[in-house]
Design brief:
seven-stranded mixed beta sheet, eight-stranded mixed beta sheet, 28% strand, alpha/beta, Rossmann fold, Immunoglobulin-like, Glucose Oxidase, domain 1
């Protein structure tokens, strides 16, 4: 997660503001990095015709709700993000009267604090108390499990997905075989001329380990051997980024770079005018076989082309952090998925050292990837829904988006992850945001501040601490245990532990009808083999004057497979489909 972040807050009045936080009171809130500009324009940027990144992704660029106002709170500096400053920025935003807070910040999943020591969680709780939705990125530590951050239930946690546009470059070998790689490059190379091709190990500097050279670690490549060649590197060392590999081979006067992605993270690496391509392992093995099959292997790398209507999409981004949540598995996280790969948005127009843009000119737009890019997509959608339903609470809006999310890709098949397996809720949450559907969800789950206080009680915090935080006379239930977290009125269900020899687990939920005043909903259960799920009652009747109804779900794992079992309960009235995702860990 890039530390050069800022908090972006959407405001629906005409007031536009910007604050910055510097103990010396010097500087300005102007964005010098570009991250804040990118996410702000994604959430609420005005429409711009003929927007592109040096001609790539040409079209109309616009934010999620162009009519929304933006107040910017620069909470991070080049040396990091102070927890006290994050809290101060959130408090200022609350006082300024914002409607939505969007935070594309997240600490490492290894270092995350508990809920009452995490400044984002604390600040978000205070915002939620005042009816302000807080949307956060899930983190970029995927595809490892237990890597999701910003997991408090009062935070709307967003994972990242691909979109139906891809950026590809062609690698042409001397044997006339060609392969498509992922890249953003403006290569000056053409079909007309090929260049010597070499694996990193074969151009190693003296006394350099083969591992270092094939990973193109700084100092591992001999310029005398690499000059004028296209170098093939691998990415076995997670500490050496593609950008560093590019600088290493470019400094060695190599003609271009091919990176064999061994982790399945085929993301478009932006190398400017320097020829580059990222390819998968299977394609990489073919290229290495070609290198070993001839004395004089050659290749060329062609400039990037845009592939529209790319399929399948959306796909869970490989970097997107996964659940279960490390602090508690009784809340299903991440919540939802949104576009976060190769997103075109506004940027600070400057040239980064070591980067060679076309014509050595700046661009008003850039293409970036990360859950930081997914977060403002949801923020913009929340703003859009709030513009249509201004009286909906943050939890109603959140529920509307979660129970109406899309679970199919543009092939009409279930969502997948970057390994081509079906995506589960710990990867994609409830699915991809579907803004239009969310305007009319039918039924919603209202999660109150009291629910969140019960959550903190069940998690183990003492009533005295909670009273000091909330400034209320709140008291915890007499019986508090972590397993009761599953019973707070959340739009999804997660059970961290269901013993095979345990009695049937009962979960309760309450729904509010925001659709037709006369409606009857019938339930349908989608459960994996062996896991028995019963809904009672299986029919909910709403008539004039009746807005709320409760139901219970009974889970029996005696015959289920061990590990997480995923499924959903669907409520249907002939018009609306209200989908409630569940994750049950059978032990």
């Amino acid at each position: 997660m890039d530390i050069y972040e800022r908090l972006i807050l959407v405001h629906f009045r005409k007031l536009i503001g910007a604050r910055f936080y510097n103990k010396n009171r010097k500087g300005s809130p102007r964005d010098n990095i570009g991250h804040g500009t990118h996410v702000a324009s994604t959430a609420a940027g005005a429409p711009v015709d003929n927007a592109s990144y040096y001609g790539l992704a040409l079209g109309i660029a616009r934010g999620g709700l162009p009519s929304a106002r933006i107040a910017s709170y620069q909470a991070c500096l080049t040396d990091g993000c102070s927890g006290s400053v994050i809290l101060k920025a959130i408090d200022d935003a609350i006082k300024d009267g914002v409607d939505i807070i969007s935070i594309s910040i997240g600490i490492s999943s290894i270092m995350q604090s508990d809920f009452l020591n995490d400044p984002i969680a604390i600040g978000a709780f205070h915002a939620e108390q005042r009816g302000i939705m807080v949307v956060c990125s899930a983190g970029n530590d995927g595809p490892d499990p237990y890597s999701v951050v910003n997991t408090a239930p009062w935070i709307f946690t967003v994972s990242a997905s691909t979109i139906d546009r891809n950026f590809q470059t062609t690698v042409v070998l001397g044997n006339n075989q060609s392969y498509e790689g992922t890249a953003i490059n403006f290569s000056p190379l053409t079909h007309g001329k090929a260049y010597p091709l070499a694996f990193g190990e074969k151009v190693a500097a003296s006394f350099t380990p083969a591992f270092d050279a094939r990973n193109c670690i700084p100092g591992s490549i001999d310029p005398k051997k690499a000059a004028g060649k296209i170098i093939v590197c691998v990415n076995e060392d997670p500490n050496v980024s593609n950008r560093i590999k590019k600088l290493v081979v470019e400094d060695a006067k190599a003609k271009g770079l091919i990176i064999i992605d061994t982790e399945g993270q085929l993301l478009p690496f932006d190398s400017g005018t320097y020829p580059s391509a990222v390819i998968g392992e299977s394609t990489g093995s073919r290229i290495l076989s070609y290198i070993n099959s001839t004395k004089k292997p050659t290749a060329t790398i062609l400039p990037t082309k845009v592939v529209p209507r790319f399929k399948p999409a959306p796909v869970v981004a490989p970097f997107s952090s996964r659940g279960p949540g490390g602090l508690t598995e009784n809340i299903l996280k991440p919540d939802i998925m949104a576009p976060g790969v190769a997103i075109l948005a506004a940027i600070v127009p400057k040239i980064i050292p070591g980067y060679s843009p076309p014509g050595n000119k700046t661009s008003l737009f850039s293409i970036r990837s990360g859950t930081s890019m997914a977060c403002p997509h949801v923020t913009g959608v929340v703003a859009f829904i709030k513009s249509k339903h201004p009286h909906w609470s943050s939890s109603i809006t959140k529920s509307a988006l979660m129970t109406t999310a899309s679970v199919s890709n543009n092939l009409g098949k279930p969502l997948t992850n970057s390994s081509d397996y079906y995506a589960n809720p710990h990867e994609a949450g409830v699915g991809e945001i579907s803004p239009i559907r969310a305007l009319d969800p039918g039924l919603v789950f209202e999660t109150t501040v009291q629910d969140y206080l019960y959550f903190l009680c069940y998690f183990g915090y003492k009533p005295k601490i909670l009273r000091s935080i909330t400034n209320t006379n709140f008291s915890c239930p007499k019986i508090s245990a972590e397993k009761f977290i599953s019973n707070i009125n959340y739009p999804t269900i997660s059970i961290a532990s269901l013993k095979k020899n345990e009695d049937i687990r009962k979960i309760k939920r309450v729904v509010t009808n925001v659709g037709s005043s006369n409606a009857t909903y019938t339930s349908n259960v989608e459960a994996p083999p062996g896991l028995k799920v019963l809904v009672f009652p299986n029919r909910l009747n709403f008539s004039a004057g009746l807005k709320r109804a409760a139901f219970k779900i009974f889970f029996d794992g005696k015959e289920a497979s061990k590990g997480y079992n995923y499924g959903a309960i669907k409520w249907f009235d002939g018009l609306h489909v209200v989908r409630v995702v569940f994750a049950v860990n059978v032990e």
